[in-house]
Structures are given as structure tokens and as C-alpha cells.
């Protein structure tokens, strides 16, 4: 395992070299319609029910480049970190593959770790809350993992993990608070930077915005851009029931260690991890944090289905929602980008949405 | 306008050269999961309620290559034919652009023709049934078209079109029964053939299957493959309420001129056109027709959303449904493909599905 303090752009590049045979280089999509929409001022009516009521709407010029990690293996960027963690483990002389790996997650990380472990014939133990949705349990079992159920609280999960570690000697691979996971997740931004070829004199993207839950993707992206002084990095969160913990921490200087939100962006209900916090806040590698409402997330989701024709989960579109609806962000782009505007990379983190829930989610 | 009798592979190649600046070269996607599923025999239980009940399930080997016309401009392959018809019109010395073009369609062709006309500053008159869904009317108006409403029957539509032609001198561009439309639609298959690079000794796809409504896409595809003797061409239709008119016509030797079906595949409710029939049946350029049930269409749709993470409309997936569920087709592939199996091109025709209807469509 890499030490957290030594994480740099090189860590992300090394991660990419290691995981390239196992992951997809996902495509980057664009949409003239969404560029026009993002570059059109919001109406005073749209702003009237917000904190920006009565202000003159921002007039940014935005060209959006969508990095489609919904097309990644297992349907989310999590495959990157999981394959990287496994490849690093395999390099360690202390690691006994037969003992396996363990994690507690009910979501994309569980599937990603199970897949990565399976492809190296390493047993994977996944601790899931008893109340997990049957489709998620089935998907994890389908990757050949051994699923153990626990209560929903952190102490219950950790006790279940500890029990498995004691009996098997498995290595714990947490979903985000782990250097190899973070550098692995950063590889999506590394690809994005190389994939976007701009016709203007600007040589690279002006900024990248990613969703922020535990912060693995955002801090990895920050590392990937840490030696590109002209590419800024922003994080996006849901504001519902305080799920914008990273934003509040970022602007108050104090990490918020717990969150209890039932935001529709279910991948972003977790608090920011310690190593991500160090990268995002203490090392100042992220330039700002922005939050959006549940309605804005739903509206962005509808636009992606209607216009880009790709399947995304609610968590995936918070960056787009910020670009379209957050006036603090839009004012900043107007000021910084001027008339030429900005080329903005927008990471779609995943596409694992329950089809049964989709109808309700997309309803206007 | 090209004469129907002279339509060949060259017509499709010429169409492609003309429309290339206006359309997207859409991507070709693959899925290991769907290949495995297509290459797994159906269970006796799955067959028990079908016409193949009690038969031994077919054991084809299939590698599927999905041509994603849902990513095409206006979200469907119809942009190809429409841009081609407009470009051909512009070449004609008799055509006065200010008189415009007219069509009667409530669907993708209306939007496609409106877009193509708009980009050449040609007025577009669209006749839509009074009961069209508001979203379709709005989308057509958004392309700058002039919408006229008529009753739902063919004579009512034709009378409305005639009235516009009399008063404006506009040229009628029907949705499929038109040589330039057909050769334009064939360009999707032309691209598909060049995009799929196969590792085996086979130099090209063994077959392409496309949805068949009016038959523009299928007959265009047949032209595109007409000089590739190793690439067969198949059509797919819904069987519900007789929407498999092309299949019934194909096997009885008599075109069926009218259809009244409310199949969920709403783009395929039209009868096969006369020029498509000539290409598909009389010139023997299509090798077979297959039909699927409403449940099979829904199941294929769920798989596409879950596994490929792309947004498709029900009409788009009938080819995939045939490959997965139609035992006549699967037995044929088993016999023809043998152990090596087949590389099958599957055209996803479009992705214009109402988000309000999506929840119901994807329900298990």
C-alpha cells in the first residue's frame, strides 16, 4: 500500500499502467444541446425559489465533456480503485492470496472488489446490511463473492468485518479511505485529460467537476490534475439533509465525520474520508465545492436520459446539476472564463440504477 | 431522386459521402454479458409457453455488435435518410428551396426532416395527428418546423399534405417509401461493417439484423450488404396484433398493405412500404424475417438499460430480442454458424422514449 502522504500525479499514472488491462477506457460524450443550455442564463423565475432570488442570472459559457464511467466495468468508476488495490496487494510479499479480501459496502465498491478479486482468483468477503436491496445482493453474489449480513450501523459492520478478518486473515479494502483506491479512481480524470482534444489555444480542460461522497473519486481527480495548473478541480454534492458535508467542511476548515441523509443520490450519502480530506482540503488540491437540490439532480438526470441517451444513476449527475443550476458556480465560470468560456470535464460516476425505481426518478 | 430500380450498394455509398458532414458516426458497443446470455441455451421453462415448447433449446454461439443509432442526431437513424433526401433535393435544378418540404409523421422522421431542412434554411411542414403526444409536438416545433394537425387516418393525412403542397409547392418526403430515404438509412449498416474489426479469419460480420416497420432501415441495410455475400441480413418485428406484417408477407409472397397494432414498439406499427418490399422480397436481398412478443421486447429493453447503460426505445431492441429469444433464429445460427458461431450486427434504431412511460416499460 502506498503511503497517503506520498500520493501524487505519479501515483495515478502508475495506477493507470497497472489497471489498464482490466478496465475500459470509457468514452467522453458531448452534446450541443446541453452546451447551449449550460451557456444560457437561468430565468429569474427559476431563481426565484432559490438563495439567488432577485440576483441577475450568471452568463457563463460552458462546453461540457462527459466522462462516462457508467460504461465502466460493473457500471461505475469503482472498478478502477478495486483493480488497483488488488494489483498492489498482489505485489506485496506479505500478501497470501488464499486469505482473500474483505469490505463492507452495499453498493458499487462491493461489486467492483468482488470482480477484481475474482479475476485474480482471490476470495472476496462482502459485508452487506441485512436490508440491502435484493438486486444488489444478487449482483454481488453473481461476481462470486461471499456475502455476510450485518446490522446497518458502522460498529455492527466493523464487528462483522473484524470477525471475518480473524477467521480468514482477509485484507480489508475500504471503499474510499485508502491510498490505492484513491489513486485508482484518479485514473478516470487522467484519461479524460488525454481524451479531450480542444480546437482552441487552450491545451487542456479548464476544470473537472466530480461527485463527492467518501471523496475517493474527487481526491483521485485532484491528484490527476495536481500538476496541471490551468485545470481546476471542483466537487459536487447533494444538499439534502446535510449530504453536503464535504462542502461544509471545506468552507469551515473542519471535516464533518458523519452524515445521515436519504438523498436520491444514494452513492453520496457517506461522509468525506480522512485521506480524501487531507488531499482535498489540507493540500488545497480542490478549488471549490458546490451543492445542488434533489429537484436539480432529477432535472439533470432527465436531461441526460433525453439528450445523451445514456443510463446514469442519480449520484452521477450532481456535477452536471452544478454546472446547470448552481449560480455560485456559474458566476465563477463567467468571471474566470470570460468570453471564451470554459471547457469543463464532468465525470458521470456510474449507471447502476434500479430499473424499478427509474420511472419514479424520471417523473417530472 | 434516384429511381427505385437502380438502388444498389453504390447508392448507399454515395448517400454516405453526401450526409457525412451532417450526421454522427455512431459508436458500436459490445457486452460480454449479453454475448454469454445469447450463447446460452434457453431453459425448457422459458420455452414452455411458446411455440417451441418441448423442443430441445438451440445452442448458438453469438457475438453481438450493437450499432447505436440512439446516439444519432435527433436520437434515431431517421436523420440519415432525411439529410440524404434534402441533399439530393438541393442538387435538383427543379427544386425551389423556398417552397419547402412536407411530410406526415408523428415520430422520428418528422424531427429528422425538420432538422435537415432547418440546416439548409428550407421550410418544413409537418402534418401530425391531432392526438400526438405534446412532447413530440414540442420536439418538432423546436426544430423550427411548421406543424399542421390532421385526423389520424391515412386519407385525412394525405388530404392535409395535398393542401400544403397546393398552397406552398412543398415537396413531399415520405418516411420510408422513397429511394433517397432508403439509401440514406442504409448508411448505418455501411458504417457498422467498417467499424467492426474481427480478430478471426472471417473478414466481416456474418449477419446484420434490424428492426422493420415501414422497411426503410431494413431495405437500406440490405442494399449496404448486397455485395457482401458472406453477410446475411435479417429483419425483426413485433408479433403483437399482426405487427409482423413484413414477416407474414415475406413468407406468403404477398405484401400486406395495412397494419393495426398497438405494439409497445411504436415505431414499428406501420406496414412495409412498396419500395422496401421490392428490395426485401422481390430482389431477395433479405435472408429472413423473425418476430418477437411484447414480453420479449420488454425483457431485451431491460437488459440494454441494465447492461449496456444506454437509453433505447422499444422499437430499437427487437433485433436483440430475436437473437435472445426466437428459437427459429437461434436454431438457424446454430446450424449456419457451427462451433465458431456468428458475429451479428444488431442495429439499435433509436432512443426517443418518453421518460414518463419509461418506468412502466421497464417494470418486470
Automatic annotation (TrEMBL), chains A, B:
It comes from the Eukaryota. Its cofactor is pyridoxal 5'-phosphate. Keywords: Lyase, Pyridoxal phosphate. SUPFAM superfamilies: Tryptophan synthase beta subunit-like PLP-dependent enzymes. Gene3D superfamilies: 3.40.50.1100. Residues 62-326 form the Tryptophan synthase beta chain-like PALP domain. The keyword Lyase applies. This is Serine racemase. It comes from Cercophora samala.
Amino acid at each position: 500500500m502506498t503511503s497517503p502522504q506520498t500520493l501524487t500525479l505519479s501515483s495515478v499514472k502508475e495506477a493507470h499502467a497497472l489497471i489498464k488491462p482490466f478496465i475500459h477506457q470509457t468514452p467522453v460524450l458531448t452534446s450541443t444541446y446541453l452546451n447551449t443550455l449550460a451557456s444560457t442564463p437561468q430565468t429569474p423565475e427559476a431563481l426565484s425559489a432559490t438563495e439567488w432570488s432577485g440576483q441577475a442570472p450568471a452568463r457563463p459559457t460552458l462546453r461540457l465533456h462527459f466522462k462516462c464511467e457508467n460504461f465502466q466495468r460493473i457500471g461505475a468508476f469503482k472498478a478502477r480503485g478495486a483493480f488497483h488495490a488488488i494489483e498492489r496487494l498482489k505485489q506485496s510479499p506479505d500478501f497470501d492470496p488464499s486469505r482473500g479480501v474483505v469490505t463492507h459496502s452495499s453498493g458499487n465498491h462491493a461489486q467492483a472488489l468482488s470482480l477484481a478479486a475474482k479475476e485474480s482468483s482471490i476470495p472476496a468477503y462482502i459485508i452487506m446490511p441485512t436490508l440491502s436491496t435484493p438486486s444488489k445482493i444478487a449482483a454481488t453474489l453473481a461476481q462470486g463473492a461471499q456475502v455476510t449480513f450485518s446490522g446497518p450501523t458502522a460498529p455492527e459492520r466493523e464487528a462483522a468485518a473484524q470477525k471475518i478478518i480473524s477467521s480468514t486473515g482477509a485484507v480489508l479494502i475500504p471503499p474510499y479511505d485508502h491510498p490505492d483506491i484513491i489513486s485508482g479512481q484518479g485514473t478516470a480524470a487522467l484519461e479524460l485529460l488525454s481524451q479531450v482534444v480542444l480546437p482552441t489555444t487552450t491545451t487542456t480542460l479548464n476544470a473537472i467537476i466530480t461527485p463527492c461522497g467518501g471523496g475517493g473519486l474527487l481526491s483521485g481527480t485532484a491528484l490527476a490534475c495536481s500538476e496541471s495548473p490551468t485545470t481546476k478541480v471542483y466537487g459536487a454534492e447533494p444538499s439534502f439533509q446535510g449530504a453536503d458535508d464535504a462542502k461544509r467542511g471545506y468552507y469551515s476548515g473542519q471535516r464533518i465525520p458523519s452524515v445521515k441523509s436519504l438523498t436520491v443520490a444514494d452513492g453520496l450519502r457517506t461522509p468525506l474520508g480522512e485521506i480524501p480530506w487531507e488531499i482535498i482540503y489540507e493540500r488545497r488540491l480542490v478549488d471549490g465545492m458546490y451543492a445542488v437540490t434533489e429537484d436539480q439532480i432529477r432535472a439533470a438526470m432527465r436531461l441526460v436520459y433525453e439528450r445523451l441517451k445514456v443510463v446514469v444513476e442519480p449520484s452521477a449527475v450532481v456535477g452536471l446539476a452544478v454546472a446547470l443550476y448552481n449560480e455560485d458556480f456559474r458566476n465563477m465560470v463567467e468571471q474566470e472564463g470570460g468570453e471564451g468560456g470554459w471547457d469543463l470535464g464532468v465525470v458521470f460516476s456510474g449507471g447502476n440504477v434500479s430499473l424499478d425505481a427509474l420511472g419514479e426518478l424520471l417523473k417530472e
